[in-house]
Amino acid sequence: MELPMVVGVDGSEASLEAVDWAAAEAARSGLPLRLVHASLWEHYEAPLTGLDTDRPSERIFAENVVATAEERVHRLAPDVKVSTDIQAEDPVTALLRAVPDASVLILGSRGRGPVKTMLLGSVSLAVAARARCPVVVVRGQETNRGSACRRVVLGVGNSTGSTAAARFALREARLRGCELLAVRAWRCPAYEITPCQMIGGDQAEAYRQEADEYLDQVLGAVDAGHSDVVVQRKLVQGTAHQTLLEETASADLLVVGAKRRHTAVGLQLGRVNHAMLHHAACPVAVVPSTDRAADGEAEEPKPASEPEFAMLSTAECRALLSTHGVGRVAVNTHNGPAVVPVNYVVAGDGSVAYRTAPGTAAAAAAEHEVVFEVDHVDDAVCQGWSVNVVGTAHAVTGDAAARGLDQQAYTTPWAGDSRRLWLAIFPARMTGRRIGPARGGQPGSM
Hints:
Elements: E1 5-8, H1 13-29, E2 33-38, H2 58-76, E3 82-87, H3 91-97, E4 104-108, H4 122-128, E5 135-138, H5 142-145, E6 151-155, H6 162-176, E7 179-186, H7 201-220, E8 231-237, H8 240-248, E9 253-260, H9 271-279, E10 284-290, E11 308-311, H10 314-321, E12 326-333, E13 336-346, E14 352-356, E15 369-378, E16 383-395, H11 399-408, E17 421-436
Parallel strand pairs: 1-2, 1-4, 2-3, 4-5, 6-7, 6-9, 7-8, 9-10
Antiparallel strand pairs: 5-10, 11-17, 12-13, 12-15, 13-14, 14-17, 15-16, 16-17
């Protein structure tokens, strides 16, 4: 007996979009649907507005939510079998408990919280980062949610369950009768680029070829039984998150892998997947793999047996800082030292400017020496880099200067649109290190 698809429902618009998507998916796959509502969600999300003191009890409200969702499925996909489940539990616990009996978990991109501009609800993020079955977060415009683009995109990355994700993506493309686009982003690390090799060259070609071979390895391990699926390949020199975000604009589904380590606790998602769940223009499927490799799976990259550290030059540090938009600033506050995540940009004058709000811990750094740090380390394979900047922070004055930084900003304020105060750090010292295989090792894609 095949396991049902489980859909988390809470009565929100995003939840109903997830129900619609799940109904179409169940009709294609022939699987039943199980609609789950955790009745204690109201303690984690804001109460519904427009209800008076005669508001029905939580139990009646929960029954109305699942009944509405069930009726919606029957209307959209009459042949799909539907069951409902109401649990007196917080939603994350309830949904994660459903994993052993689910073929896939399907969630909306936002709950009923008070922050309407929130890019991803806390429940969806927590479940996608912990579940040991595929999780689909339904987002994007109606064209993308309704499978009108006729394309599934697979993001092929390092050590993040690419084989399991490829198998899921091929199955989805076959069910939909559409093409699969397998995308692999690669970059030549800054520490291996000399001034005469900024573009092209033998070293860059080696990284491109390695990315091509890895793509062959992943697709070759799972193509059995899917010969009827048209598979397109795409290699892109650039960052993985930006490459995939661009592809989602014309996709029905983005599939990415996620490594689940049995000995790890907390969120296991990765920065690229985090960005996709917040910003993708289509539904996102996060497909986990565990560190107990399944039979027949391609071997995932392993940590370097003898990783080495190397110092980065100032130019390399600046180049790496320019590729990211979120870092951490260490400041002294009246409550003691604090380390705060901030959105930042490398300004044209060489300063590192970050965005915050008046009265915050990050704003307390004004006219004080601070330490600013950005890193990009994959602890699964012991590769990556870290850059530290030490200098005095100064508030940016003048509307023109602030607008200029707004235009250069790599990301919008993650903590809300009120973060309009810019502080600029003029580096007194800038240091960085990379960690990776010893010089005799093979190059790896980023």
